[in-house]
Amino acid sequence: MRHRCRWVGTDPLYVAYHDTEWGTPVQDDRKLFEFLVLEGAQAGLSWLTILRKRPFYRTAFEDFDPARVALYDGAKIQELLSGTGIVRNRRKVEAAVQNAQAVCRIQQELGSLGEYLWRFVGGRPIRNAWKRAEEVPTRTEASTRMSAELKKRGFVFVGPTICYAFMQATGMVNDHTVDCFRHAEL
User: Fold this and answer.
1) Fewest Cβ atoms closer than 10 Å to its Cβ: which of 5, 128, 157, 174?
2) What CATH number is attached to the domain comprising 57?
3) 57 carries an active-site annotation
4) pTM of the model
5) Which mean pLDDT values do the consecutive 10-residue runs of the chain (186 residues) have?
6) Is 39 a catalytic residue?
7) Hey, is 45 helix, strand or coil?
8) Domain range for residue 160?
9) Is 49 inside a domain boundary?
10) pLDDT at residue 1, rounded to an integer
11) Terminus-to-terminus CA distance in the chain, angstroms?
12) Which member of 14, 22, 39, 57 is catalytic?
């Protein structure tokens, strides 16, 4: 039997996410933007709730194309808020649009969101060796720096805790516990 991180539980969607995605290094700008949106949407909710809504987010935000989302206006935001598939929180939906605009500015200035974000971990994943889930921090110096820099660039819903969850999800840090089969794979 495979050992997994204790937080996974038994929900098949959660298991699949853990086994194939969480902690896998991501460089693709769209995928990184997707995780920024989803981590912001998750604030105050369970990650499983967001995973269940993920297909609706992909449709609502045009497969997370930041150039297209950056053009959303008040009417489009209202349309999204009147639907049922995504979290209907005005601040979170507006944050997705504002963050898309910030992503576009980074891409114009630096060429790639991925290159910019991976600088916060020196371009390579930080490999931790936690024995128990309780040891895993909710924020770090790197996530605090990332949060501050993203805010300076106009991003919102990117506090240090959200940034750390984002870093975990996108493989910037390997926070699988050492007894989890994914720790060694990554």
Assistant:
1) 128
2) 1.10.340.30
3) no
4) 0.96
5) 92 97 98 98 95 98 98 98 95 98 98 98 97 96 98 97 98 98 96
6) yes
7) coil
8) 11-185
9) yes
10) 77
11) 19
12) 39
In tens, the pLDDT along 43-95 reads 999 999 999 999 999 999 999 999 999 999 999 999 999 999 999 999 999 99
**Site of tokens 């298991």:** 15
**C-alpha span between 124 and 107 (Å, rounded):** 20
Please indicate, yes or no, if residue 1 is contained in any of the structural domains: no
Catalytic residue, candidates 21, 47, 62, 115: 47
Neighbouring residues of 60: CB distance < 8 A, sequence distance ≥ 6: 80, 83, 85, 86
Q: How many domains in the chain?
A: 1
Cβ-proximal residues to 119 (8 Å cutoff; 6+ apart), any chain: none
**CA-wise closest residue to 77 among 95, 65, 52, 101:** 95
Instruction: Look up 149 and say whether it is catalytic.
Output: no
Residue-wise burial string across 124-163, b where 16 or more C-beta atoms lie within 10 A, e elsewhere = ebeebebeeeeebeebbebbbebbebbeeeebbbbbbbbb
Q: Of 57, 35, 27, 29, which is closest to residue 164 (Cα–Cα)?
A: 35
Please check whether residue 4 lies inside any domain of the structure: no
